[in-house]
Amino acid sequence: MTPRERVLTAFDHAEPDRVPRWCGASVEFWAKAKAALGLDDEALRVRFGDDFRRIFAVDTGNDAPFTHPEATSRTVFGIERHGMGWGQPLDHPLKGATLDQVHAFAWPDAGRLDVSQLTAEAEQWDGRYAILGGDWAPFWHDAIDLLDMDGLCIQMIDVPEVVDAVMGHIVDYYMAANEQIFSAAGEAIDIYFIGNDFGSQRGPLVSPAMFERFCLGHLRRLLDLARAYGLKTQLHCCGGIRPLIPMMIDAGLDALHAVQPSCGGMDLAALKADFGETIVFNGGIDSHHVLIDAAPETVRQSTREVLEIMMPGGGYVAGASHDTILEETPVENVLAMFDAVEEFGVYG
Q1: 129-150 pLDDT, tens per residue?
Q2: Fold type of domain 3-57+115-134+189-344
């Protein structure tokens, strides 16, 4: 099988030739791994056995100088952030806002995206790999940025119409962005990949009732749009989110990434038994306690144990339990993980 065939077979809950592999990594780890192995970007993906490739629209409207002296990045909604990676928000412009102030906010126009190169970018791999595309659409995180986490939680109770308006404007932007992307390159994309972290180490960040009230409908909007273009769907969602999984399945989600077995309620055997026939699980190889701290042989054995639980019947993609493999992770441990999938993840 080609990597694309392998992935799509797993997404159809059938057994491919072997378990597909997924590699997501921080910029810092990626640079370290390339230097350690003497490989370029594509050669490193091949060495790790990554069965996926990803294409991105270009944001042409986010190059203005920062207004805050500590800013290191900025979201599409103008929130300047500071710190490692995307950092943390430096202000919350809609905290305590009224409904009129929400509607008057300077919401972005999705016309700022350049989608002209997407199909050509996907075609460089000649149909060999499963192509991820679409806007990341982290609407839950954007709402936190705009309202502040405490403010968001309080306004859900006190002025839910304000939260509804904020979420609506945010997801309206992402719907328009994805409409552009899918219209331009939908035939070149296999899987719409969206990211929102609804979980903590112990469980969901909001109750199932609040998730259903404020988030589920917007998630469903984005998934429905992708399905209208014939795409599979995958949600990146960290944390202990077991109570939310049935609603995600009902909304039409095909795959959940990157499953964290160290979080509350995320026991792999229980997840596979209860949901393995209806949703694809991606991840599950423990970044928290194994990939960073263990010896390569322990990583190899742990990977084998995860495969024994998750691979029967298909519906599983092997990878780390945190997509952004961190810089402090030993390169030899990541090699041990992917080599173990190659060795033990064979069907039949």
Answers
A1: 999 999 999 999 999 999 999 9
A2: TIM Barrel (3.20.20)
Q: Using an 8 Å Cβ cutoff, are 52 and 46 in contact?
A: no
Residue 260's contacts (CB-CB under 8 Å, 6 or more residues apart) are: 199, 238, 239, 240, 266, 283, 286, 287, 288, 321, 322
The whole-number average pLDDT for the span 29-43 is 98
Reduce the DSSP state of residue 239 to 3 states and report it.
coil
pLDDT exceeds 90 at position 330: yes
Question: Would the CA dihedral through 218, 222, 225, 227 be positive or negative?
Answer: negative
Q: What is the CA radius of gyration of the chain?
A: 20
Average pLDDT value for residue range 54-68: 94
Structure-token pair, residue 297? 């042989």
pLDDT above 90 (res 84): no
Which among 303, 300, 288, 197 is positioned nearest to 244, based on CA atoms?
Answer: 197
The strand pair at 191-195 and 130-133 is best described as parallel
Distance CA 161, CA 102 (A): 10
